[in-house]
Design a protein that fits this description.
heterodimer; A: 522 residues; alpha/beta; Rossmann fold; seven-stranded mixed beta sheet; six-stranded mixed beta sheet; 24% strand; B: 267 residues; nine-stranded mixed beta sheet; two-stranded antiparallel sheet; 26% strand; transferase (chain A)
């Protein structure tokens, strides 16, 4: 049997002073997101979400083996992009002074459903299921209190909610795609509990039994065991490998169906597929609603240098910075301003303008978006910067979201709704990465017209038309618009159409500037 | 062909005329006619002085008076602004001014091969440039210049008012030896009476620089100063970020921003 680190509420009644650090680290292990190989698109070409996250509820008595079941599922579903395990322990209510005193005297009933903040549990689960961000409360076992900090969570494809009351609340039950009850013999549960508490916490058997009889057992009989009736599947608390395998097969098939449904709808990277019978008519620039930097002699000269293969690398970096500065200066026009009166050192009052925004932040799409970062900071020097690592899968061009590191203001929905976000990427070709990045921001609650996408180049026949249809209100500013996309090979055999070369197949703009990240970093 | 298409009309880039944003109670503001941008004069970012308006000489070019530009000026005008913010925001304006100034330099057609193997018909920069700052405040614009023109040569001129004659007098100058063959970006943040700027141009002309190859770049100018300067040197192009209301009895620009060099270096 695996070391039962979590298991039930009884932990709470353990000596509060002992091992606070262990308690905290134990807590953090319970909400985990495992990222394996990136998250494929979860939205259709219209920009709307096409599938929810898959939610599994796991209930069962204290020490019945819920955590074991949850971890076995995670292990068995190893190929899944991201899985979060949410523990009911995180959702203990914020206690009043009286409750706190009771808790420290081991007289507070943590095994009663009313001890848990069910509405908050449901809200968090609902947000995660709808692919929105969530901020999970953090409960300290040593202080017997919910802490002010929260843990930000975004983007799991599968969510496992576990706890003795996981199937108790109707609102929670309605969110589950699969309900599991871990059935275990009471004797076995008590035996495990005694063994664990004695071995790991040095407690006396009498104390354990008293607690068990006073709180744990009645809670199980009154609130936990009856919820087994709601379960889709009842799993034995031991020797359950077969049951877990069955569950995983089911989950995999469900996910596969969702992903198949999606692939058919995904139009972004496949738009330029050579098998397409006739190319779509090129969109009119007016329809794309791009803000194009005025083509002054300097801008044209910079673009010429950036496009040329003869430009030395250090020159490239310098001119990328210069152009980015101009782009971001120009993009400042999309922010709101309001009249503002100041007094000058000459002693004269004058009415000018000032920025009328609550939060501004930048997010660059790794890797090539970083090329714009220095220029961005020359214009907005002390705004938080985040990044999204999005790479396209070399076999089918499908983008994969590998890492989300976004500014703190975007992690909370309330502040995200008041934020203006500059999204930076070197070019919009297939538009797949731009599409995904915008979707991530919208998932967080950023308003569409508060997103300002800053980029050097846009391909007219590329994904921009789809992007525009899906997100008509996002501001897009670029330095130039190129006509075509063509297939190319990254590295080495570029332009010679060498299929067995070591390069990766990519879509390149024509005439374009090549792979910006390769040019400025490699 | 891959030459970038002509830009679409850009109605959105143009902010409403500045005058619309001003409350009528403000007397100390630019006359709205000066900054009016209703007549398109130039396909580029800058708008030349409004030709229908005779207040500004023809050789004066201003930045487009957008809300975001006005917000920058509002910060550096505010006497409460910290020195760090003054540096940062004045640098932003200086970069925009230098970018605008460089647009008046010639370019030539130039074809290059892109990494995808196609030919791109672009343009190449033509002509050597150098910067000349009028000490001390003009020196503050050098960093902004260097961020746009890496490793540009910069000469310096020190001009001060001679108390006995009340005329600007040249104290010191150090200029690149081949300055006569270069385009010169003359840097001085404030154009008040225009006295020292005109003296500096005299120095440059004495060195053999051609008048039409001088671009005078400043952040704020007074209408009086602009008129005096441009009447004297009509072929020097003046790039100014904002034309203020005028001068007070001490020849300070109103509303202005105080002493630029003092705020940049000492406060």
């Amino acid at each position: 049997m695996e070391t039962p680190q979590n298991v039930g509420m009884s932990d709470l009644n353990a000596e509060s002073s002992s091992l606070p650090v262990d308690h905290l680290s134990l807590q953090s292990k319970k909400n985990i997101v495992l990222v394996s190989h990136g998250r494929p698109p979860w939205y259709g070409p219209d920009g709307e979400r096409i599938s929810d996250a898959f939610v599994i509820g796991v209930a069962g008595g204290s020490a019945s083996g819920k955590t074991h079941v949850a971890r076995q599922i995670v292990k068995s579903l190893g190929f899944i992009p991201a899985i979060a395990i949410l523990s009911q322990d995180s959702f203990y209510k914020k206690h009043t002074e009286e409750e706190l005193a009771l808790a420290h005297a081991s007289l507070y009933d943590f095994d009663h459903p009313s001890a848990i903040d069910m509405p908050m549990f449901a809200t968090c689960l609902e947000d995660l299921k709808a692919c929105r961000q969530s901020n999970i409360p953090v409960y300290s076992f040593s202080e017997h209190q919910r802490l002010d900090e929260t843990k930000y969570l975004y983007g799991p494809t599968v969510i496992i909610a576990e706890g003795i009351m996981a199937l108790h609340d109707p609102a929670l039950r309605s969110l589950y795609d699969l309900k599991i009850f871990v059935q275990c013999d009471s004797d076995l549960m008590l035996a495990r509990r005694i063994e664990r508490d004695v071995k790991e916490r040095g407690r006396h058997v009498t104390g354990i039994l008293e607690q068990y009889l006073r709180y744990v057992k009645p809670a199980y009989d009154n609130f936990v065991r009856p919820t087994a009736a709601f379960a889709d599947i009842i799993v034995p608390g031991s020797n359950n490998d077969v049951a877990i395998e069955l569950i995983c097969t089911h989950v995999r098939r469900q996910l596969q169906e969702r992903s198949n449904a999606f692939r058919r709808k995904l139009a972004v990277p496949h738009l330029y597929n050579s098998s397409l019978s006739r190319p779509p008519p090129p969109p009119q620039d007016g329809d794309l609603k791009l803000e194009i930097l005025p083509p002054t002699p300097q801008v044209q000269g910079i673009l010429t240098l950036l496009r040329s293969t003869d430009t030395p690398r250090q020159d490239l970096i310098f001119f990328f910075d210069r152009l980015a500065t101009l782009l971001v200066e120009n993009a400042m026009q999309f922010l709101p301003y309001c009249p503002h009166t100041v007094t000058t050192p000459v002693g004269v009052k004058t009415v000018g303008q000032k920025l009328n925004t609550k939060h501004i932040c930048g997010v660059c799409i790794q890797r090539s978006g970083c090329v714009l970062e220095r220029g961005f900071k020359r214009v907005l020097n002390n705004v938080p910067m985040g990044s999204l690592l999005i790479q396209s899968n070399s076999s089918d061009g499908e983008p994969l979201l590998l890492q989300v590191k976004i500014p703190v203001v975007l992690r909370k929905r309330t502040s995200a709704e008041d934020s203006w976000v500059f999204l930076l990427d070197a070019q919009i070709g297939t538009g797949a990465a731009a599409f995904m990045a915008i979707r991530v921001l919208l998932d967080h609650g950023v308003k569409q017209d508060h997103i300002i996408f800053v980029t050097y180049l846009v391909a007219r026949r590329g994904g921009i038309a789809v992007l525009r249809r899906a997100f008509p209100h996002v501001h897009i500013i670029c330095a130039a618009v190129d006509n075509e996309m063509k297939e190319g090979w990254l590295e080495g055999a570029r332009g010679e159409g060498n299929p067995e070369g070591s390069g990766r197949r990519v879509w390149l703009m024509e005439p374009g500037m090549g792979q910006v990240s390769a040019m400025s970093f490699l | 062909m891959s030459f970038p298409p002509p830009p679409p009309p850009q109605p959105s880039i143009q902010q409403p005329p500045v005058s619309a944003n001003h409350s009528p109670t403000v007397s100390s503001k630019i006359p709205s006619s000066v900054m009016s941008s209703s007549v398109p004069t130039n396909e580029f970012a800058s708008t030349n002085s409004n030709p229908s308006n005779s207040t500004l000489p023809r050789s004066v070019y201003t930045l487009k008076p957008t809300a975001q530009l006005e917000a920058l000026y509002t910060i550096i005008r505010d006497k409460e602004t910290s020195r760090g913010d003054f540096l940062f925001y004045s640098d932003r304006i200086i970069r925009l001014l230098v970018e605008e100034g460089l647009n008046h330099l010639p370019v030539v057609n130039k074809s290059v091969v892109t990494p995808t193997g196609s030919t791109y018909a672009g343009v190449g920069f033509e002509g050597k440039i150098c910067g000349v700052s009028i000490l001390r405040a003009g020196e503050a614009m050098e960093q902004g210049l260097r961020e746009v023109c890496r490793s540009v040569r910069i000469g310096k001129i020190l001009i001060q008012r001679d108390e006995s004659t009340a005329l600007p007098r040249l104290f010191y100058s150090k200029l690149p030896s081949d300055i006569a063959s270069r385009y010169v970006l003359l840097l001085d943040p404030m154009l008040a009476t225009g006295g020292s700027a005109m003296k500096a141009v005299e120095v440059l002309l004495d060195e053999g620089v051609k008048e039409e190859r001088i671009l005078f770049i400043n952040l704020i100018s007074s209408p009086e100063g602009l008129n005096t300067f441009c009447n004297r040197f009509p072929r020097v192009k003046v790039i100014t970020g904002w034309v203020d209301q005028g001068l007070n009895e001490k020849a300070y620009i109103i509303p202005g921003l105080g002493d630029f060099g003092e705020r940049r270096y000492c406060e």
